[in-house]
Amino acid sequence: MTNEELEILINEYIDGELDKNKEGFLFTQLSLNHNLRDYFKKCCLLKNEFQKTTEKYPDSLDSNILNSLADIGIKENIISPKNQMQKYFLYMVVIVIGIVSIIFINESSINSRQLEKTVMQLENQEQMIKLLINSIPSAEIKSTREESIIITANKM
Amino acid sequence: MRNKNQNIIQFTIFYNRYKEGLYNYCIKMLYNRTISQDIIQNVFLKLFQNMDSIKNFDTISYWLFKTTRNEIFSYLRKKKVRNEHLEYYDTNENENIANDHSNYYDVYDKKELNEIVINELKNIPPEQSEPFFLKEYSGLSYKEISSIMDIDEDLVKSRLYKTRQKLIKQLEKKYENGDLL
Questions:
Q1: Does residue A60 form part of some domain?
Q2: CA pair distance B156, B162, nearest whole angstrom
Q3: Contact criterion met (CB below 8 Å) for B76 and B69
Q4: pLDDT band at B122 (very low <50, low <70, confident <90, very high)
Q5: Domain enclosing residue A116, as ranges
Q6: Closest chain B CA to residue A68
């Protein structure tokens, strides 16, 4: 392995990305190679020094963000009654539609029952008519001539 | 579905955990405190508004740094500073940024090693130093950084290595006599 490849391994180790299997190999190389140890120390030093350049998070930004969040909260509260009104209105509409549909269903069932009754009545009347027709006595017409003509009615 | 109180608690945890890293990442990218503060404010407002829609909190640091990066580049595009930056990437000259924000690093005047690190970072093209900032401030993996920056994972590794090499060289120059360590 070249020096550069070993240095890349050190970088990976510092970044917490080095494969656990390679750690043993890296530490062995570190114990053998003085330059590599030097580079490792410099990387650690650099990491520490860079961390020191971290700026403190400003308090003013804290309060700005909190105020903005409070504004969002107020807006939500202002908006929410409207939403609630809309909700109630929708509930009302749903209830009205429900009542109207129940009335329609009721009406249609009444109508269908009436229709059935009418059909029944019609059937009864039809049977009555048939019975009346059947109850009429048969009529025979006889001619007085030699060639007799017999007309019979109501013979089923 | 989380309720409002749970969201507020989660938000507070994330805010306290990531605010400093995001703020410093932003500053290192823009060299401007005021703009950085505006961007951080926007990012956390977006987080608060999207708490319900974020399904997986395990990747929240990725979400935050990605959103911050988008905000940074959106700002650069809006102000047409992006072109200057691209030019800067090519020419490797950052005098304009350094001059514009010459007072920014005054805080570090007395800290010699910090000063060297900061000054050298100004000389490194942003596209090369960005993985270094992301790694140091977010602790994201190479894979996540490559996804945020939309570049190859090996390129992230190589840029991190090169940035460290440059910074270490500068530290060595400062202490040529060998009293660095």
A1: no
A2: 10
A3: no
A4: confident
A5: 81-136+149-156
A6: B45
**What residues form DSSP beta bridges with A151?**
A141
Task: Test B181 with A57 for CB contact under 8 angstroms.
Answer: no
- Interface predicted TM-score (ipTM) over 0.85: no
- Residues of chain A with pLDDT > 90, as a percent, come to 45
> So what's the pLDDT on residue B100?
45
Closest-approach residue (CA) in chain A for B160? A11
Q: Which of B40, B49, B165 sits opposite A61 (nearest CB)?
A: B40
Inter-chain CB proximity B24 and A54 less than 8 Å:
yes
A47 and A94 assigned to the same domain: no
Q: Provide the number of structural domains found in chain A.
A: 2
- Whether B103 has a pLDDT exceeding 50, the answer reads no
Residues 140-169 of B with CB under 8 A from A: 141-142, 157, 160-161, 164-165, 167-168
Q: Per the CB < 8 Å rule, is B172 touching A52?
A: no
Counting every residue written for chain B, the total comes to: 181
Pairing type for strands A140-141 and A151-152 reads antiparallel
Instruction: Check residue B155 and give its pLDDT.
Output: 93
Pair A32, A96 in one domain: no
A137 token code pair: 């006595």
Instruction: For residues A44 and A85, state if they share a domain.
Output: no
The answer to whether position A8 is within a domain reads: yes
CB A75 within 8 A of CB A81: no
Of B23, B41, B45, which is closest to A55 when you measure between CB atoms?
B23
